[in-house]
Amino acid sequence: QKEVEQNSGPLSVPEGAIASLNCTYSDRGSQSFFWYRQYSGKSPELIMFIYSNGDKEDGRFTAQLNKASQYVSLLIRDSQPSDSATYLCALGGSGGYNKLIFGAGTRLAVHP
Amino acid sequence: ETGVTQTPRHLVMGMTNKKSLKCEQHLGHNAMYWYKQSAKKPLELMFVYNFKEQTENNSVPSRFSPECPNSSHLFLHLHTLQPEDSALYLCASSQEDREVNQPQHFGDGTRLSIL
After folding, report:
1. Residues of B in contact with A34 (CB under 8 A)
2. Tell me, what's the pLDDT at A1?
3. Closest residue in chain A to residue B34, using alpha carbons only
4. Do A32 and B100 touch (CB under 8 A)?
5. Rounded CA gap, B66 and B57, in Å?
6. Residue A73's CB: how many other CB atoms inside 10 A?
7. Of A93, A98, A101, the CB nearest to B94
8. Under an 8 A CB cutoff, do B56 and A34 touch?
9. What is the tens place of the pLDDT at every residue in A42-100?
10. Residue B45, pLDDT above cutoff 80
11. Which residues of chain B are within 8 Å of residue A43 when distances are taken between CB atoms?
């Protein structure tokens, strides 16, 4: 089992809809969770991070963490074509501080 | 502008060449990282430096040699690379924190092609 699992996609949603991106992980010791957005040919850009169970909202983005079920999600409300990118989930904590484990990413396509 | 600058942006080299990648961060961070990103694979952590000291070497072949002269600068020296080393090499930085992982901020990367 991979340490961090993401559906590779593409996840296709219409403009204005809610995009839901999911990430499951195997290490129960993980303590910190990050979502990055990566446009084709560009570097990863931090979108959100979450440390505690529950929801964390920032503008159109909401991160949801459920440590008991070992998943973390990213919701994007009012999706725009500019949101089309690959979204990377990353975990930190039990592997040592300052060490993040990345998933392979989910490609999101928002069509007009 | 992410606050992390990498040069060069693109590099083509032969297998017998020696070259270096450079990374500089202007965020006041004290942890720096090298990652490798190959097509359709997850980001692979290569090296971690905290306060100029190497704290992680993720079983990286010796043909990759990192150097961290201070908390703001990080180099990756390349020597006798193989075609499978062609990839995007990303530098990142973060605040060092022994309690919880702080967010890492990435540079734009160096696209490396080995002939």
Report:
1. 101, 103-104
2. 59
3. A99
4. yes
5. 10
6. 19
7. A98
8. no
9. 899 999 999 999 999 999 999 999 999 999 999 999 999 999 999 999 998 666 667 88
10. yes
11. 2, 88, 90, 106-109
Q: Which amino acid is at B52?
A: K
pLDDT digits (tens, 9 = 90+) for B73-112: 999 999 999 999 999 999 999 997 776 778 999 999 999 9
> Quick count: other Cβ atoms within 10 Å of Cβ A9?
14
Contact B77, B47 (CB under 8 A): no
Type of residue found at A93:
G
What is residue A83's three-state secondary structure? helix
- Classify the C-alpha dihedral B26-B32-B34-B35 as positive or negative: negative
Q: Which of helix, strand or coil describes residue A36?
A: strand
The alpha-carbon gap from A7 to the nearest alpha carbon of chain B, in Å, equals 12
